[in-house]
Amino acid sequence: MSKDVRALEPKALWNKFADLNEVPRPSKKEERVIQFMKDFGTNLGLEVIEDEVGNVIIRKPATAGMENRKTIVMQSHLDMVHQKNNDTTFDFDIQGIEMYVDGDWVRAKGTTLGADNGLGVATIMAVLESEHIQHPAIEALFTIDEETGMTGAKGLKGGLLTGDILLNLDTEEDDEIGVGCAGGIDVTARRTYKEEETPEFKLGYKVTVKGLQGGHSGMDIIKGLGNANKIMNRVLFDGFENFGLRISEIDGGSLRNAIPRESNAIVAIDAVHKDAFENEMDALATLIKTENKTLEPNLNISVESCELPEKIMDLGVQEGLTRALYAALNGVYRMSADIEGLVETSNNIARVIVKDGEIKIGCLTRSSVESAKMDLANALRATFELTGCEVEFSGDYPGWTPNMDASILKVLSSLYEKLNGEKAHVAACHAGLECGILGQNYPDMEMISFGPTIRGAHSPDERASISSAQRYWKFVLEILKEIPKK
């Protein structure tokens, strides 16, 4: 497993990644990885700082002959998305990631791999540890909680860093140089409802939607992948319209920045409709799977008998909930008019929980245009408020505006073409990078983002390309040698 990963080239990179993946590091539970990183820097005899929110800064002087170059900030985030397959037994709080090599890919056994952003962290660790890599003065910045609120970047105060150029190592296509990104905001709808005793003449059913690809709610939203919460709502809406289906519980999706892969619901119907209901659900499941067969070949929708639930939702609230979820936008809202192929604004209906008299719906709305972000957020708020929900906006973070005249962009563009014989794709992305937030307190710092190829981030299908990591490592080494002079 990890032994095979450690044997990969470049060993300096993969060994540091393997070391990191032995440390549990889910978002908002980074205590162990913070200590791990502090110990790493201290053992190297380097200056180590932990700021008041938990970010770790490690400073390393320039190598001989590089003292006249600008100081760089090499930045990656310590936390990782914790997602696993439904049939995988794994505790992210106490277990390290179990990795294996699959052809040109490094994967994890039934969980997210943590290459986002672990390969960036490992890169910085390898540079800090090396005694022969040429580089200018480095401030290594390891932020926390990027995946669930970017609170590390938000909490980093101005004046702590002295660097002139920031290299963010959180891009997931090795032919891309990132110069901008989308901002985001969490839209959370809540309400309470009265539960009713379930009449005895009804039957209980468990409805399951699973087998979807999932993925990154920013980078993958353009693909039109299935959203388990929207599919589940379609099934429940149909069951209610045709057979008076009543909802007892819903548990769909997981993290705000992951496209929902699974959803489960407990419902009740009148016993007299048993055969017709089961036939209708089977036909509807076949129809939905046919619609999604190209993008979601493993989609599975099942409706199975279960114990009759003791309680069901108030009928009026159920009607409002299913209609609101039908009306709420999920996916791409608008494409950029300025950058071809870039999603400008989108929404991910990430989480739907209905249980014990409480409803919670969580969305992550993204946009590279601040006004458009708030426009869509307000549209969602209005949709959910019409059904009696209270709606909260939180976790707001800005986008990163491209600077096409940055000197570091010229360096990376020239080096990429020299190493690969073709031009890099210079682009903004629809993901949320920390650069926009960091730039608020460091407005004069030039920023750029790049990284190795990673597929399926934020899902158990996450995998990192071995050949790409090799190209990326060579790129990093050349960049460090070509940092502009002060």
TrEMBL record:
It catalyses: Hydrolysis of dipeptides, preferentially hydrophobic dipeptides including prolyl amino acids. Its cofactor is Zn(2+); Co(2+). The keyword Hydrolase applies. Residues 208-293 form the Peptidase M20 dimerisation domain. It is an enzyme of class 3 (hydrolase). This is Cytosol non-specific dipeptidase. InterPro entries: Peptidase_M20, Peptidase_M20_dimer, Peptidase_M20C.
